[in-house]
């Protein structure tokens, strides 16, 4: 086993130092207090600011970031999520002709944070704010597969059956979620409503944490081939848009 | 055969974006970055044109890189821009000689009576379609030239070039000091207060009033045509269209026919109604403007209801008040309460534009009681955006033959569902968002693509318009009437507050 990672130790020391003082500290003070070279301290502070554990004020002094103070209680604002996803979900709906939706985990369910209509003149209503089941939709399965909190909330008790295709057996559901993690993509075919299918993929933040899911919904005929397998081109479109929205949150982007 | 794409540069008031679209008008790549806003004095707003050009130099190559597109695959580039903002630069060095004065800037307020002395405001309106207001370029140029004697001399000797943001970027894209194209298009030129709306030429009388030497001005060209080929930051891309941002979004919404309209929620709110090949002068405080022109075809005109402050108010809540951490949070905060609690915000930061044109009006918050929380303020902020839109819609319905039965919306703020519902409520018509909120860039790309035959005609583009979301009025009509009435009173207060103080 390797020893402690020096830069992590030093970063932790900086955060502890900033948390223990009432006034923001300047670079020189921080470097002196921890016996670090100024360039080293500057590099560490830069990264800590990037991940928002530390904030720099107008005078160039550093203090503990608001995000760190609220860690564990901060959740992504669905309105923020929609603003980031807007352009890419429009492109997804335009490319596939299907309704595009973005979901996030809230209080035991997936809630729709954004919805783009399917192409066509049929009557459609905005589903924003609607709760959909985690285990029977593609959007929900992505959240279950990647969000430990979501998984805990569902897997500890029996789940509801909506159609004869709903996966209700625990071991089958666990297998399905393992597949989702492996493929980076979830599919649901007639599991919530008969004849309705969905394909979804994870939206990740800068650190790789899954904050939401994005995907398309449509008839089984639109989304799947004759053997009820999702069409490859649609899967690719969903994956591509999931990556693009993740990039909006800083994922996979060079610092 | 390799793919072919069109690109658009959208140089907006707060940020610059570069977007790439495919043949179906679908977004392939998007890069964007904000630039600095400078507020050196109350009412002054400035940009650094050199900073904006540096952003373009980063964003265009980066957009191509993220989509793995070779510059040779871009068949045409559309340039769209914040309008009226004026840049003055040195022809030889290519450096701006003064900060760009932004459209929102109100420093020319005291100059307007002097201008009206020389040429009556009704004459200016008849010739340019524009009310005499701080908003437009001409007075800003006169201010620059009167404020710095040396600049006036250099302008007269031909050392300096003038332009709106489109002209500045086109000149730099096509070579800058080494042969850059010094031109603007009719849609941008129609915002300068220097162009005759019917002849589409610079007007000598207006040039004299604004003290502008003709030789410093760009050539006025059709919107769609050959505007040169880029030499930087990516060489070899033909510039097929130059178009003001609001006219671009009218185009992006495919509102090609007379009677079709759109409303964009950006820094400000801009509702435009296509009036076909005739300029219609408003009797209710709207601006008459050129919508676009294809080389060799008749000019298309529009009526415009311009509202200076919409997204800028949300940005103010974030930047200046610290009420929210990101613009999207305004919806979260506003949704934490059921109504405005009796509070109204009139964001007359740049005076009031359409339909009031009160350059001196100042912003107010009315109806404060101890009951009011930041949630109510956030609610009042969103309602202010909607209520200002209602005023321009009412003016438009008064000017036009037929009332609008629904409103096509676009812009970044359309991601705010509560705002869109509020807009539907106060406008009392359905609000429809197309499957591309970035219609400004899309319109520039459409215009650029049409110019080079990438798309055969406008009908092809119409078939690419799809509905992405729709909001219907849900408010109690009595509550709506009450809101409109309270809003009118708040507007009166804002105008009264801006009147000159009586001497003490």
Q: Quote the distance from N terminus to C terminus of chain B.
A: 77 Å
Can you tell me the residue ranges of chain B where pLDDT is under 50 for at least 5 consecutive residues?
none
Q: Report the average pLDDT across residues of chain B.
A: 93
Q: Using only CA atoms, what is the Rg of chain B?
A: 22 Å
Fourth-tier CATH superfamily name of the largest domain in chain A: GAF domain
For the record, the CATH architecture of the largest domain in chain A stands as 2-Layer Sandwich
Biggest beta sheet summary of chain B: 7 strands, mixed
Detailed description of the structure:
The complex is a heterodimer of chains A (255) and B (504). Chain A is of the alpha+beta class and 255 residues long. Chain A has two domains: 6-69, Winged helix-like DNA-binding domain superfamily/Winged helix DNA-binding domain (Arc Repressor Mutant, subunit A, Orthogonal Bundle); 78-248, GAF domain (Beta-Lactamase, 2-Layer Sandwich). Chain A contains ten helices and eight strands. Chain A has helices at residues 6-20, 27-33, 38-50, 66-69, 78-96, 138-146, 148-155, 170-183, 220-223, 232-248, and strands spanning 54-56, 62-64, 99-106, 109-116, 131-132, 186-189, 196-204, 210-219. In chain A, the strands form two sheets. Chain A has a six-stranded antiparallel sheet. A two-stranded antiparallel ribbon of chain A has the order 1-2. The model of chain A has no long low-confidence stretch (mean pLDDT 87). Chain B is of the alpha/beta class and 504 residues long. Chain B folds into two domains: 5-249 and 438-467, Nucleotidyltransferase, domain 5 (2-Layer Sandwich), CATH 3.30.420.40; 307-433 and 474-498, Nucleotidyltransferase, domain 5. Helices cover 34% and strands 20% of the residues of chain B. Chain B has helices at residues 49-66, 112-118, 121-128, 137-147, 149-156, 165-173, 186-189, 204-209, 245-252, 311-319, 329-334, 374-399, 417-427, 439-451, 458-462, 477-498, and strands at 5-11, 15-21, 27-34, 46-47, 74-81, 86-90, 100-101, 160-164, 183-185, 219-221, 239-244, 261-265, 269-276, 287-292, 300-307, 344-346, 364-366, 407-410, 431-434, 467-471. In chain B, strands 14-15-13-12-18-19-20 form a seven-stranded mixed sheet. In chain B, strands 3-2-1-5-11 form a five-stranded mixed sheet, with helices on both faces. Chain B has a two-stranded antiparallel ribbon with strand order 4-7. In chain B, strand 1 and strand 2 (15-21) form a beta hairpin. In chain B, helix 9 packs across helix 14, helix 10 (311-319) runs antiparallel to helix 12 and helix 12 packs across helix 13 (417-427). The mean pLDDT of chain B is 93.
């Amino acid at each position: 086993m390797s020893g402690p990672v020096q830069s992590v130790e030093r970063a932790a020391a900086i955060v502890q130092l900033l948390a223990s003082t009432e006034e923001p500290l300047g670079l020189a003070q921080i470097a002196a207090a921890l016996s670090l070279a100024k360039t080293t301290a500057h590099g560490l502070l830069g990264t800590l600011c990037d991940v928002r554990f530390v904030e720099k004020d107008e005078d160039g002094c550093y203090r503990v970031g608001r995000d760190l103070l609220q860690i564990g209680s901060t959740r992504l604002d669905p309105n923020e999520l929609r603003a980031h996803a807007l352009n890419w979900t429009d492109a997804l709906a335009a490319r596939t002709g299907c309704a595009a939706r973005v979901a996030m985990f809230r209080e035991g369910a997936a809630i729709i944070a954004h919805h783009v209509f399917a192409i066509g003149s049929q009557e459609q209503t905005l589903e924003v704010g609607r709760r959909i089941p985690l285990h029977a939709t593609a959007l929900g399965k992505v959240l279950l597969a990647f969000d430990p909190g979501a998984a805990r909330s569902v897997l500890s008790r029996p789940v509801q059956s909506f159609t004869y295709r709903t996966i209700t057996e625990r071991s089958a559901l666990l297998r399905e979620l393992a597949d989702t993690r492996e493929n980076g993509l979830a599919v649901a075919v007639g599991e919530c409503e008969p004849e309705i299918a969905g394909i979804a993929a994870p939206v990740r933040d800068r650190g790789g944490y899954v904050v939401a899911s994005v995907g398309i919904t449509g008839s089984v005929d639109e989304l799947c081939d004759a053997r009820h397998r999702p069409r490859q081109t649609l899967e690719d479109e969903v994956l591509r848009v999931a990556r693009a929205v993740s990039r909006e949150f800083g994922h996979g982007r060079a610092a | 055969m390799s793919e072919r794409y069109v690109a658009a540069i959208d140089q907006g008031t707060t940020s610059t974006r570069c977007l790439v679209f495919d043949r179906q008008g679908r977004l392939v790549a998007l890069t964007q970055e904000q630039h600095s806003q400078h507020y050196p004095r109350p009412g002054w707003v400035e940009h650094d044109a050199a900073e904006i050009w540096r952003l373009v130099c980063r964003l265009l190559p980066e957009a191509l890189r993220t989509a793995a597109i070779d510059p040779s695959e871009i068949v045409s580039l559309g340039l769209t821009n914040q309008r009226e903002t004026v840049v003055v630069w040195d022809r030889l060095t290519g450096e701006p000689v003064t900060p760009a004065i932004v459209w929102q800037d109100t420093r020319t307020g005291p100059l307007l009576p002097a201008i009206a002395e020389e040429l009556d405001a009704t004459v200016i309106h008849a010739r340019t379609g524009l009310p005499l207001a701080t908003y437009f370029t001409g007075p800003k140029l006169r201010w620059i030239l009167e404020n710095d004697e040396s600049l006036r001399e250099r302008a007269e000797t031909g050392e300096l070039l003038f332009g709106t943001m489109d002209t500045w970027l086109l000149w730099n894209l096509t070579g800058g000091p080494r042969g850059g194209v010094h031109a603007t298009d009719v849609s941008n030129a129609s915002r300068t207060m220097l162009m005759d709306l019917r002849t589409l030429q610079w007007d000598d009388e207006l040039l004299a009033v604004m003290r502008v030497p003709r030789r410093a001005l760009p050539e006025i060209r059709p919107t769609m045509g050959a505007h040169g080929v880029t030499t930087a930051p990516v060489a070899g891309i033909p510039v097929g269209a130059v178009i003001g941002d609001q006219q671009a979004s009218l185009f992006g919404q495919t509102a090609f026919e007379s009677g079709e309209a759109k409303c964009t929620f950006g820094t400000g709110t801009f509702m435009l109604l296509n009036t076909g090949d005739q300029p219609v002068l408003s009797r209710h405080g709207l601006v008459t403007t050129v919508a676009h022109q294809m080389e060799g075809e008749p000019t298309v005109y529009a009526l415009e209801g311009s509202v200076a402050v919409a997204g800028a108010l949300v940005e103010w809540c974030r930047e200046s008040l610290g009420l929210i951490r990101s613009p999207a949070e305004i919806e979260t905060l506003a949704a934490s309460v059921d109504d405005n609690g009796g509070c109204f915000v009139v964001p007359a930061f740049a005076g009031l534009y359409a339909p009031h044109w009160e350059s001196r009006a100042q912003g107010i918050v009315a109806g404060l009681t101890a009951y009011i929380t930041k949630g109510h303020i956030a609610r009042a902020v969103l309602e202010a955006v909607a209520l200002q839109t209602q005023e321009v819609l009412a003016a438009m319905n008064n000017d036009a033959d037929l009332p609008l039965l629904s409103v096509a919306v676009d812009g970044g703020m359309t991601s705010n569902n509560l705002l869109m519902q509020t807009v539907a409520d106060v406008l009392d018509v359905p609000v429809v968002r197309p499957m591309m909120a970035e219609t400004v860039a899309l319109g520039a790309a459409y215009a650029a693509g049409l110019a080079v035959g990438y798309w055969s005609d406008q009908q092809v583009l119409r078939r690419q318009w799809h509905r992405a979301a729709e909001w219907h009025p849900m408010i109690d009509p009595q509550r709506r009437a009450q809101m409109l009435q309270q809003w009118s009173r708040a507007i009166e207060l804002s105008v009264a507050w801006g009147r000159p103080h009586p001497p003490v």
